[in-house]
């Protein structure tokens, strides 16, 4: 059996509210560009946004982002403990706000200052989509900064983040040879 892989991200589901992370955006629960809010529904940040809840139950917290006017903005970041040389998985869920094709933008996953994966968010209606990257923890490090970066600047880069996960997992075989 493999060793359990606990999530190294403190409060990756945002149930403790606005804690355990930093952002290049302002904390503001009013409808304002370049800001974020932890809440339970898109329309609690901006009245014109859809009635749409979090990834798991629909009624718990998630990170609501009124996108950045500046490209390459870390909308969420933290530092996590790692074990050098262990495999890791970094994942999170994204839902866009707008229900038309006007909102197409790029997000990047950043590990130790390097963009390890970039992808395009393009949804015709709010829909939770998981994005994942796996790699190997760098040598000689006991902690590592990770981030979710909004790569595209401009209006209509409004979205939610939920259930952010990062874990280094040593694989251990569970068998006996005879």
Q: How would you summarize this macromolecular structure in one to three sentences?
A:
The protein is an all-beta fold and 178 residues long.
Structure write-up:
This protein is mainly β. Helices cover 0% and strands 43% of the residues. It has no helices and ten strands. The protein has strands spanning 26-27, 35-39, 62-66, 73-81, 87-96, 104-111, 114-122, 129-136, 143-150, 158-169. The chain has a six-stranded mixed beta sheet, with no helix packed on it. A hairpin with a 2-residue loop joins β6 (104-111) and β7. The mean pLDDT is 89.
N- to C-terminal distance: 19 Å
Oligomeric grouping of the chains = single chain
DSSP strand count: 10
Tally of separate helices: 0
Which percent band covers the strand fraction?
35-45%
Helix content: under 10%
Please give the radius of gyration in angstroms: 17 Å
The backbone outline, from C-alpha atoms, is globular
Which stretches of 5+ consecutive residues score pLDDT under 50? none
Biggest sheet: strands side by side, in what order?
1-2-3-10-5-8
Q: Summarize the main sheet.
A: 6 strands, mixed
Secondary-structure element string: EEEEEEEEEE
Q: From the helix content, strand content and strand pairing, which structural class follows?
A: mainly beta
Mean pLDDT: 89
């Amino acid at each position: 059996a493999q060793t359990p892989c606990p999530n190294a991200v403190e409060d990756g589901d945002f149930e403790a509210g606005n804690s355990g992370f930093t952002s290049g955006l302002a904390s503001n629960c009013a409808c304002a560009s370049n800001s974020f809010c932890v809440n339970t529904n898109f329309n609690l940040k901006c009245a014109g946004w859809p009635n749409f809840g979090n990834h798991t139950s629909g009624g718990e917290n998630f990170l609501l982002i009124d996108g950045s006017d500046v490209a390459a903005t870390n909308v969420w970041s933290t530092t996590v403990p790692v074990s050098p040389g262990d495999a890791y998985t970094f994942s999170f869920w994204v839902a866009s706000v707008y229900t038309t094709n006007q909102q197409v933008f790029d997000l990047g996953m950043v590990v130790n200052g390097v963009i390890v994966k970039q992808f395009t968010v393009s949804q015709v209606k709010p829909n939770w989509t998981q994005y994942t990257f796996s790699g190997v923890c760098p040598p000689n490090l006991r902690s590592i900064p990770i981030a979710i970066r909004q790569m595209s600047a401009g209006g209509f880069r409004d979205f939610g983040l939920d259930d952010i996960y990062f874990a280094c997992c040593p694989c251990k075989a569970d068998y006996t040879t005879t």
